Amino acid sequence: MAAHINEKQPSTRPALLREEIQVIIQHWVRILHIKLGWIHDFDKIVVNYASTVFIFGAFLSSSKLINTFAGHTNTVYSIDYSILNNDQFICSGSSDNTVRVWDLQNNKQTQLFNGHSNAVSCVKFSQYHYHNYCRNVICSASADTTIRFWDFKDNKQLQIFNGHTGWIGGIEFSPFNGGRYLCSGSEDKTICLWDIETSKSLHALKGHEGCVRCVDISPLQSNNNKNEIHHIGVIGGNGYTICSGSYDNTIRVWNIETTKQYIVFKGHEDGVMRNIGCANTILSGSNDKSVRLWDIRSNQQIQVFNGHTSSVFA
């Protein structure tokens, strides 16, 4: 079992001018349809830094810190935002082994879960539990090799997924079937696909030669699926792929129904820390300090963005 999530940490975070930040934010929102971390039509942005969660007014005439949520005793690795029953919540996962829930209206921590025995690497609100069972649920992945579901209204753990043998770097809910399916990437070099309704592992995708640090699910536009695009999928995921980034420096694209690997993108010179799939393209950030854009249809790298002086985590 890993003692902690062992990956490179940036030593400095250069400050940008307010005008530059706004231009960059507007650009990425426009081309990537960013959802997570944004509140009320993109007028606020949630940022995690060290052991604290901040909220900034991103597009106000004088950008300012709106609120600070302090409570974690170590690095905050992940945050998510959701509106449930007209209430706004943030959840956070930390290397202090806890998952915390913050109420934006009351500006306070409302729940703390300490069931993980190691760092919490990723947290996400579960829309599947909310829409199907009227439950307020958070899904968390950890270096203790487990994935857990927490009902923060009733203050209890609902489910635990065991199957990975290494720390879990990323999780993603399916954008189809109301988020019933979950994929996870792990240090054990596999990607697992889970059925939340039955709590069962459906597939373990193998092919990476290093830790799988990040995963995403997006619509498939590859030229490689012409014979499969019209077939009805077993889990309702026809037309979707899993995109995974790894410490083996590659990005791989998988058919979520057949579990077939379509594409392997090579170009990064160090581990891939984050990837985002959007129909025809994939955007990736790496320990090699670069951000790269890839075309799924041509299987080619489109662009390399250099400028960072340390690892790109998000």
From TrEMBL:
Pfam family, one: WD40
Keywords: Repeat, WD repeat
WD repeats: 69-112, 113-160, 161-204, 238-264, 282-304
CDD domains assigned to the protein according to its UniProt record, in alphabetical order: WD40
Keyword Ribonucleoprotein annotated: no
SUPFAM superfamilies with a match to the protein in the record: WD40 repeat-like
Name of the protein this chain belongs to: WD-40 repeat protein
Organism field: Reticulomyxa filosa
